[in-house]
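Before a colleague's protein record goes any further, I have to sign it off. What it holds is a sequence and that sequence's fold in token form. Would you go through it and say whether the fold makes sense for this chain? The record follows directly below this note.
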Amino acid sequence: MKANMKVFLTGLTLLLLSAGAWAQADTSANGAGSSESVAAAPLTDPELRSEIAQLRKLLQEQQLRIAALEGRTAQPATSEPTSVVSDTYVSVASPAPSRSQTANESRAQSVQSGSSDDRIRNLERQIHGLGPISFSGDVRVRAEPFFGGPTDQSLDRARVRVRARFNALADLGPQFRTGISLATGEVNDPVSTNANLTGFYTRKAMALDQAFVEFSPTKFKALDLIAGKFRYPWFNTELTWDKDLNPEGAAETLGFNIDTPFLKRIAVIGFQLPFAEVAGTSSTNKRIAQQITYGGQLQTSWALGSHVTLSAYSGYYDFRGSDSIALALSRASSKNPQTPFTGLLPLNSSSPVQNSLYATTATTVITVGGTAFPTGVSSVTNAQFGSKFALFDNIAKIDINTGNARLPLSFIGDYVQNTEACANLASILAAPASTSTQTFKQTKNAACNPNQRRAYWAEGRIGRLKEKHDTQFGYTRIYIEREAVLGNFDYSEMRQGTNVTQHRFDAYYQLDRNVQLGFTALVGRPLASTEPWLTRLQFDTQYVF
């Protein structure tokens, strides 16, 4: 790995120096450039060819040195990270993204100064200073037909989607690492990284999906701190958090491996996840307040014999200021093309949100000859959930070693309850009185029932996806009452966010080390409904690099 890196760095340096030499020759010929380039003696064509020949010779000498060094004792090599085929994330290592422009300019000047050998050594030192670096990603193409559902066929469709993700991670010494991830998907939708093949062949958006720094102190290895936009540091199912959502803020993990016959590990995780900033509207209070989720999880792992492992997770998610989510969702669903979005950025949801929601709209009125006429221009002025959201989440996971490495068994059960269902009803603001220029109207999508606060997730899975020709099969039963969870952050591919009963069948085949084929069938409908079942099929081809 070290030899390959040296060859790569030497070749890269040669390319950069050659480009620089050509640039100097071109600048001199045109009489333009900086004061430094003017002061330098211009290179003639024979001189340019001579320098390139010298650099080629230097590259050969460097390769011979590397071959000679292979036999010597080098610094301890770090293990090279391996990419893992995962629909949730491809684990990688990448360079630190937070380097200032000034630092880059200074570094470029130092590389260009001195002899060619000095330039190569400088570049090597600078890259090695970043630590072990790796990149990975995946591309997935999906065909997705829908049929059934409402009798008006409003959900019938057949679409094609694509997803692309690029990840980078860098180990910055023994205690720090940093990473970034880019992903496709609509930037206003936090729970989907898919891009529909539509829009008259326009380009598909790709945005920052992760950017984090992680600290694991060597003197206290039980502690791990992470901040930025990162993967979930706590265990969850999509009953509460969609796998494509990456939370933002900070999280702290304190975990201990325990050498007892039964209890093997115990860990405590805390997290603080800001999601919106809202300015006050009172004439005496316009303070910008942070809306945030506080939470934590207790994790334990148990050995139930030589072939069975039980993992138990008990967590709590307290959403402070969830009404800002209601307002953003309501503005996103407002279809009036004459009314531009103002204030909070609209928040799109991949599936219809069914939590009880009260929205107030204002419609502009003009008066002509004493008669008021609505203009048709309206806007959402306020929106609030009937519930607050303080979720108590309990998960049990059983892993069974069947004796066949390719056929492990796992079962997951998840039960969540919203301890503050309908607790926001007393805080719902009434619609303001209408005026001569505006009329106000308040509507609700459903009455809030505090008994509709529970959700269940039962999943069984056999097989693995690691080597060529591996297979995996799974079935999941999902049941979510209306106020149990926040319906725009959970599993985005159900019939709807909450108030839903859902079945999921899936099968995967590892066609090659880096190619995976998948099939998923999702069958669901609203609770207490006679609506026909909506069937959603997904045919996936995924390449991981």
Remarks:
- The longest helix spans residues 2-30.
- The domain at 133-544 is CATH 2.40.160.10 (Porin).
